[in-house]
Structures are given as C-alpha cells and as structure tokens.
Amino acid sequence: MFRSEYADVPAVEEPIHDAVLGRAAERGDTPALIDGADGTTLTYAQLDVFHRRLAAALAEAGVRKGDVLALHSPNTIAFPTAFFAATRAGASVTTVHPLATPEEFAKQLRDSAASWIVTVSPLLEAAREAAERAGGVREIFVCDSAPGHRSLTDLLATTAPEPHIDIDPAEDVAALPYSSGTTGIPKGVMLTHRSIATNLAQLLPCMPMGPGDRILAVLPFFHIYGLTALMNAPLRQGATVVVLPRFDIGTFLAAIEKHRITTLFVAPPIVLALTKHPDVASYDLSSLKHIISSAAPLDAKLAAACSRRLGLPPIGQGYGMTELSPCTHLVPLAAENPPPGTVGRLIAGTEMRIVSLDDPDKHLDVGEPGEIAIRGPQVMKGYLGRPDATAQMIDPEGWLHTGDVGHVDGDGWLFVVDRVKELIKYKGFQVAPAELEALLLTHPGIADAAVIGVYNEDNNEVPHAYVVCQQAAGDLSEGEVMMYVAERVAPYKRVRGVTFIDAVPRAASGKILRRELRDLREQA
C-alpha cells in the first residue's frame, strides 16, 4: 500500500458553498470572476451577495432540499453564482454538457430526476425539447435573458429571506456529474458536500494559490476538473478567475496577455497548441508561472517542448477521475525537477494500491505496473440508482478501482500507462495507445493523433492510427506514418494501418473518444 507523504487533513464538514465562499464577504472588492471576452467583473462581495439572494429566489420558486437542478451552460461568470445558489437552497446540481443533444439531455434529466434547469438563451431550444421529452421539469431559468423565462437577474430582485437548509455534508449530494461516457452508459456520480470540500483541502498543500493569482478558466466548469481546479479551488483561496466560454487559440492567448494570467490548468490538446501553434509567438505570455495538465495522458516530450517554448518550469500533471471528486495525485507547483511523465504524488489523506492485472488479490510493489486503486475521503458516494455498478467500482474495503494502469517509482511518483480496457493485446503483448499517440505527435507533419485496436484478417488485435495532418505538411502518406512509428518502437507496437481524419473526437476534458473512432470504422 502507498500512502501520501502529506499529513492527513480533517474532513471538511461544511456545505460546499460555505467551504468555498465562507470568506467571500471579507474579500470585498477583490475580483472573483472576470469575463475574459468583455471584461465584466464580479467581486467577491458581489458573488457572496448574489448567490445568497439567488438561493432565496430559488427557494421562493419552490426549490427544496433533495431537488436536482440541471446547470446547462458554457463557462460564464454566472455559472458559479447559479451553482452555489442551488446548493445553498438545498438542491443537488447535475452539470450538463452544453453540446448535449436534446435526447442526451433528456436522458440525464430523467435519470437524475431533475426538476429545474438553468441554461443560457442560445441553448434554450435544446433545453426546452429535453424538458418536454423528460417530463418533470418545473421551470427553466436563463442566465441571460429570453422571452417567457425568468432570468437570474430577475430573480436577484427577490426580497424573500435567505434559506437556511440543514445539510448533512457526509450524506447530501452537492454535485451529480455524469461519467463513464467513454466506456459505457453515462452514470450519475454522487459527490457529497464533504467529498468535494475535503478534496479542496487535500489539494491545498501542493496547489497553493491566493489573492494576486489569476487563473484562466477555459476548460468547462460542467466537467469535474474545471469545477474543482478552475472554480472551487481558486475561489476558496481568493484568486481571480478569468472565464472563457470555449477554447479558441487567439482568444485564449489574448486573455493570457491582457489579464496577466499566472496559472493555467489545461488538458493535453491545449499543451499541444501552445507547443506547435505559430500564433503563440505573437503574444506576451510572460505573466505565466505554472501550467498544470490533467484529464488525459500528457507525453513527457510534448510537455518538455512546451516548457522550453514558453520558458516555464516543467509542466506539472495531475491525476484523478470524476468518481474521486476528482483528484488523487498532483505534481506540486513548487516541485523543481519532477521526473518526466509523472502525474504526481498522492495528495494528503489518500492511499493507493497497484493491483495485478492477472490476479486481483495480488498487490504490486514499486516499479510493477497494474491497476490503480484509490481509497480516501474523496471517493464518491456511489452511482445514482446503480448499486451494482457502484459495487463493481468500489470494493468492500472502500478501494475504488480506477481502470487505469500505472506504476510507482521509489520516490512515490505515479506514472499512468493507459486504461485497462484500452490496452491493445497483440499476440499476448500489451500495447498502450497513449504511447503511440505521443510518438505520432512528435512527427512535424502531424497535428493530432489517436490509436485504437482493430482486428486483422488473422484475428489479431493490432494498432490502427487516426491522424490529423498539419496544414503545412503537404501530402503525408499512410506508409510514411507507419514507417515513422516502426523506426522508433518494438515490432509488436508498430502501427498496422492509418486513417486520415479532420479532427480527433474528444470529450470536453480532452480525453479521446475511442468509441467514436470504432463506430467510424464499423460504418466504413
């Protein structure tokens, strides 16, 4: 068993709105949230008042403890206000992908039994259709304005008293994100007030931030990584969050320059853009002090190339998953020479086992790869309405089996190899798609790449690459790509086929949607 080197932290027995915004009023005019596009600013004092007043309005509208509110929005400065108002009113918040189809949205509404929706006017049609399909939705509010719907601004005019709800942080669900969409049917992940708030406390020793720090929030708040690293953690510590609704390289770089961003929490595709995009040289990024990448594997060579280009310390990584609130490992911001490719060390109060892939009762030692299992206060309460799926994920001793393969070195640094279900088995040899993807990205003519296992005519599973070419690369052939890999890997790891595509399908977190690539292949 591996244990964190940090001292344990006591469980945070507070509702998430108090854990994050408990000191908001005393921070006064310090900017809490800034719209990265138009500069609109919410101070901490305003955020404190607005979320309390909105909680009163939601309670007046009928929101009660135990209700579920669906928050269906891209990143805006209104998103945190809506989230904390809902939890203060006693509701659980299920966050919805802004690009979800009406049917996907309706499935989440039905599964979560959501009674309320907060959305934005450009997404209103999808929200209405989803509500009609699902049934049970009492009202749809909008963050901005739309005829026939009450806006959050309208609700702030309420004179109703602030609700004081008796919340049990250990049992009551604060957030209900949906996970496992890349490997199966999405399931509601029950994250309690305590699990989310305690994870923030666990992160503090290795991820300190405070007034003067400026965080650029471009990864989505609806995803647990964005919710934690870009919303809850900085607001808890008094930092300023600059909000962008989506990633556009020009807007992103301009926001770093204009708002003097100090820390970026990103996913590997953004690291790739910072490394290879020509426009990066046109902006002043000198305010940056740290970049942390998470949500998907980041190749060590790509990370080093990005650090060199920007003149920054090594890019740190973090590791976790929605079911873990989400973080278990992080490269501390103060770490000087973390080993290349590591996703970090265990954060405070967290235990880990590396479990043999062949014998689940065998626990492995330093240097031996196996499935990562985690135990700690950040483990989810379970999957909503799916006790069997919960039992498959969390064993009777409280260990959550992540489905990720990794190994630990002698200093406690974790290295993630790949997903258990994504490993390609070629004639008994294990091939990690992430390793081949990282190699493909070193080719100057390749902008992005993904690898899946396919079966050949001999019924052997072999690696097949999906490649996005750089615009200036000219005509890159299948043979050239295959030869590039073959010259650099063992024979059993060679790519046996290549398909050129316009874009690699990815989840909002940056994870490759291999299932979509398999569907694409079956349709061909």
UniProtKB/TrEMBL annotation:
The keyword tRNA-binding is assigned to this record: no
PROSITE patterns documented for this protein: AMP_BINDING (PS00455)
InterPro entries: AMP-bd_C, AMP-bd_C_sf, AMP-binding_CS, AMP-dep_synth/lig_dom, ANL_N_sf
AMP-binding enzyme C-terminal domain mapped to chain residues: 435-511
Signal sequence annotation: none
Keywords: ATP-binding, Ligase, Nucleotide-binding
Entry superkingdom: Bacteria
Domain AMP-dependent synthetase/ligase: 23-384
SUPFAM superfamilies to which the protein is assigned, alphabetical: Acetyl-CoA synthetase-like
GO molecular function: ATP binding; CoA-ligase activity
Metal-binding listed as a keyword: no
Protein family: Belongs to the ATP-dependent AMP-binding enzyme family.
Protein name from the UniProt record: 4-coumarate--CoA ligase family protein
Native species: Streptomyces sp. R21
